[in-house]
Amino acid sequence: MKEFLARKGEAYTNINIDRMPRLWRERGNRFFLPKIIHIIGTNGKGSTGRILAKFLVDHGFKTLHYSSPHIFDINERFWLNGADITDDELNKAHLDTLKTIGEELADELSYFEYATAIAATLLRGCDYGVIEAGLGGEYDATAVLPASLMLVTPIGYDHQAILGESIEAIASTKLRAARSPTIIAKQNSARVYEIAARIVKERGFELFRAEDISPGIKEFTDNKAPPFMAINRQLAFAAAVFLGLNPSVSAFLINPLLGRMTQIAPNITIDAGHNLSAAEAVREAFGDKQAHLIYNCFQDKPFGRILETLKPIIKDVLILRLTHPRAAREEELLNAAKGLGVGCSYFNGRLEEGELYLVFGGFGVIEAFLRAYGAR
Questions:
Q1: How far apart are CA 113 and CA 12, in angstroms?
Q2: What is d(CA 373, CA 376) in angstroms, rounded to the nearest whole number?
Q3: Helices 87-101 & 111-122, crossing angle to 10 degrees?
Q4: Domain 262-373 top-level CATH class
Q5: Rounded Cα–Cα distance for residues 234 and 212 (Å)
Q6: Distance from C-alpha of 116 to C-alpha of 97, rounded to nearest angstrom
Q7: CA dist 155 → 7, 76, 193, 227 (Å)
Q8: Order of strands across the sheet with 83-84?
Q9: How do beta strands 128-132 and 207-209 pair?
Q10: What is the bridge-based pairing of β-strands 78-80 and 63-66?
Q11: Is 298 in contact with 330 (CB distance < 8 Å)?
């Protein structure tokens, strides 16, 4: 199974907006689906989904949380009834998916499209599927799945080459995935609310604000979690209320280990964020603390603006070398840091006792660091 996917490659260069709709027209009736909560947005999709999925599992509902990307193994993308699926479960789902859609179409699908088809297979027998969109919305592979409820996390700048250069364009692309009642989290831009209201109304559904369903943000805040986690918790709670599950706030005060502001040692924090909005959230969470930034990213990221955003909380930049073909050019990273007056060198693998470290730049950076650190 993993060899089959490895041949496809994880990069999203092979985008075809017709493949998944065609698969669903021709084979969709062969899948057995539960109620699906579809999560779109820029940041917080993984955390929101895991918080909601854990609540559902803890309350006796068979639940699949499908997320992306993963850190070490693709199994991490399929969290079924409280645990990542095993290799045996993954291989069985692969064989079942091949039978359902046929080998010819399976070969044609991209990495993410086929992973989404596997998720659809795993949904059989579940009560709920909590499904996270990939980078898009309207044309995302996950958008073919019939949703009972849409959740919209904060929308900001990311993947502009694909989604558009403005917040208006990005929000429109993502929100055109709306195909059921929609709950929207607290947003930084008022324009996102306006666009959401227009698109959801055009599709004949109601739009709700999470803060109108849930208690105030302060109810979901604690001193052990970064500030943005309160927004994710509030959105997940609002979903549970909408589903009629009578939740308590205390059930949502968890910090899922998904690589967002995770402290893996007293002096090491890892964050898989990779865009400007994530950098702003990390800066806010760090407050007046300063750390050595262990960093890298893909070439299409606005790393100059990201480093400028993080500048108040970093002592210097330590470039973590990546072998990925889409990795940023190291000379450009060095120049960006030096242009901001920030010291920059290469990470040599040594961590000094008593010094704080922040590892940031995406799941690939987190994976490379954790492997070097010995966490895997």
A1: 10
A2: 8
A3: 100
A4: alpha beta
A5: 10
A6: 10
A7: 32, 24, 10, 16
A8: 83-84, 78-80, 63-66, 128-132, 35-40, 149-152, 182-184, 207-209
A9: unpaired
A10: antiparallel
A11: no
Two structure tokens written together for 114: 């086929």
As given in the structure block, the two tokens for residue 254 are: 């968890």
Domain ranges across the chain: 2-252, 262-373
3-class SS of residue 39: strand
CA distance 237 to 213: 9
Measured CA to CA, the distance from residue 160 to residue 300 in angstroms comes to 9
**Cis status, amide bond into 69, omega within 30 of 0:** yes
Q: Does domain 2-252 fall into CATH 3.40.1190.10? A: yes
57-114: pLDDT as tens digits: 999 999 999 999 898 999 999 999 999 999 999 999 999 999 999 999 999 999 999 9
Those residues whose C-beta lies under 8 Å from the C-beta of residue 216, and which sit 6 or more positions away, are none
Helix axes 19-27, 87-101, angle to 10 degrees: 80
pLDDT < 70 stretches in the chain:
11-14, 158-165, 257-258, 374-376
